[in-house]
Amino acid sequence: MAKREVAHIRITPGENGGHEVAIEFKRPKVDKHPLAWQEDQRDHFGPKEGHHMLAHVANHLQIPESADGDDDDDADKDGE
């Protein structure tokens, strides 16, 4: 089964000090639903799960991690 295309991701503060991530996926045009998207998934992350939450979002957006775990653009910010 192919991955569904993400229409929107909404990240809001959670009641527990963490975050709530709501992911809305695009629907095929043949769908008779009046909206082009619908919220399909809602996940809750605790206050110490920030890295896990960001990895979850990156996975849905199909953002690959670099092989060395470092972002090349960050080096320019330090003047290196």
Helix-strand pattern: EEEHH
Number of helices: 2
Structural class: alpha+beta
> What would you report as the Rg, rounded to the nearest angstrom?
16 Å
Given the C-alpha coordinates, what overall shape results? Answer: flat
- Averaged pLDDT: 77
Extended strand count: 3
- Poorly predicted parts: 74-80
Could you tell me how far the N terminus lies from the C terminus, measured between alpha carbons in angstroms?
A: 44 Å
Number of domains: 1
* Spatial order of the strands forming the largest sheet: 1-2-3
Description:
21% of the residues lie in helices and 31% in strands. The protein is of the alpha+beta class. The protein has one domain (6-64). It has a 3-stranded antiparallel sheet, covered by helices on one side. It is flat. The relative contact order is 0.19. Residues 74-80 have low confidence and may be disordered.
Which structural traits does this protein have?
2 helices; three-stranded antiparallel sheet; single chain; 80 residues; alpha+beta
Topology:
Elements: E1 6-13, E2 19-26, E3 37-45, H1 50-60, H2 72-77
Antiparallel strand pairs: 1-2, 2-3
What's the quick description here?
The chain is α+β, with helices and mostly antiparallel strands and about 80 residues long. Helix content is about 20%, strand content about 30%.
